[in-house]
Amino acid sequence: MKPVELTANQPRQFYRGGGALSEFLGVAAADEFRPEDWVASTTARYGALDDAGLTQLADGGLLRDAILIDPEAWLGAEHAAAFGADPALLVKLLDAGERLPVHVHPTREFARRHLDCRSGKTEAWVILGVTGSEARVHLGFARDVERDEVTRWMAERDESTILASLNAIEVSAGDAVLVPAGMPHAIGAGVFCLELQEPTDFSVMLELPGFPAIDPDQALLGIDPGTAAGCVARKALSATELGRLRSAPRPLRDAVERFFPDEADPFFRAERVAPQGRSAQLDAGFSILVVLAGEGELRTEDGDVLRVARGTTTLIPFAAGGSTLSGSLVAVRCRPPAAPAAASDGLFAE
User: Fold this and answer.
1) Is the whole model's pTM more than 0.85, yes or no?
2) Is residue 60 part of a domain?
3) Is 258 part of any domain?
4) pLDDT, position 349
5) Could you give the number of structural domains in the chain?
6) Beta bridge partners of 307
7) Helix, strand, coil percentages, rounded to 5, for the chain
């Protein structure tokens, strides 16, 4: 199997953006409600009645269906034994033209109990660029919050109070932020990021005003408000805990660094690959390569060569074997969990 160069996959969203995304991909600007590219996605939009969100291959078929036919070739025998035909990963390029509403993603335990799904939605961001005065993220409560407060905020949709209760964090290109499931958060206007997450589209919206495109019936995932409030991590984040969630790349091997702390490994992994005139070795494994800057070549052990450059997104199947990335470029290699998912959600799950 050979690496697969992907085209943009931009399902319609409830918020505006996409200018920086279109420029990065080198494509004509889509309408302003398509600010995300779901890269190598086998995850459909929540509540979608069609294939929205699913990646289509060059032959017209869906990546999801191709993996179902031969999961070991795409994912590797060890991964397939643990997760079946599920890559256990969703990758997005996300360009927020306006602040996203404060929301929460369920933990695995909550998803198993109330949504009949083994995956929750821990996620993480690699910041690619920021513009404007609102280029920040909001993450976790700044003080302990009672459950009845959360329930009241959800009922009243008190957006100013909800947003003010969170920690505001200034971000810049190169920052990496881990967002454990259950943690309330919002991405500010002007933030362009690469997002890795568990393979679901589950969100519990804590505010709705200003976002008329959100279907109120889907805003709580079909769960009653009292139950939905139970997925919110309500303890304050200390400065030390916030520091654990933000990370800078750290060396892994020659020309390769890792972005996230070890606590992210049961959910996903991300590597910064920067050959800069040398060669970086990539071991065999299902992965998604997003080139952030420059250009070069991806060469597999069978001799297949693919030219890559800023804005290209490439899916590397397990059966393509090990590969070498060379050239004056910087890329992010997005990878599934390092091992079978543990029962715990880790970090700050309640």
Assistant:
1) yes
2) yes
3) no
4) 46
5) 2
6) 297
7) 20, 30, 50
The token duo for 296 is 């070069």
Q: Are 294 and 328 in contact (CB under 8 A)?
A: yes
Residues 6+ apart with CB under 8 A from 270: 124, 126, 176, 194, 196, 258, 259, 260, 332, 333, 334, 335
**Domain containing 297: what range?**
268-335
DSSP 3-state of 98: coil
CA 349 from centroid of its chain's CA atoms: 18
Q: Tell whether 67 and 122 lie within a shared domain.
A: yes
pLDDT confidence of 344, banded at 50, 70, 90? low
The Cα 16–Cα 39 span in angstroms is 19
pLDDT digits (tens, 9 = 90+) for 307-338: 999 999 999 999 999 999 999 999 999 999 98
Residue type, 170: E
Q: What is the DSSP letter of 131?
A: -
Q: What's the CATH code of the domain at 296?
A: 2.60.120.10
Joined together, the tokens standing for residue 330 give 């910087």
CB-based contact 233:182 (threshold 8 Å) = yes
- Listed in sequence order, the residues at least 6 apart from 116 whose beta carbon sits closer than 8 Å to its beta carbon are none
| Inside any domain, residue 262 | no
Please check whether residue 274 is in contact with residue 311, taking contact to mean a CB–CB distance below 8 angstroms: no
Residue 346: Cβ within 10 Å count: 18
β-strand 246-247 against 176-179: which pairing, if any? antiparallel
pLDDT for res 208: 75
Query: What's at 12, amino acid-wise?
Result: R
State residue 342's pLDDT score: 52
Cross-strand pairs, 330: 293
CA distances for 327 relative to 272, 275, 298, 332, angstroms? 14, 6, 9, 14
Q: Under 8 Å CB-to-CB from 164, ≥6 apart: which residues?
A: none
H-type alpha helices, the chain: 19-25, 63-69, 71-75, 77-83, 108-114, 147-156, 159-164, 225-229, 239-245
Last residue of a domain, one of 247, 280, 313: 247
- For the CA atoms of 115, 349, 172, 189, the dihedral, rounded to the nearest 10 degrees, stands at 40
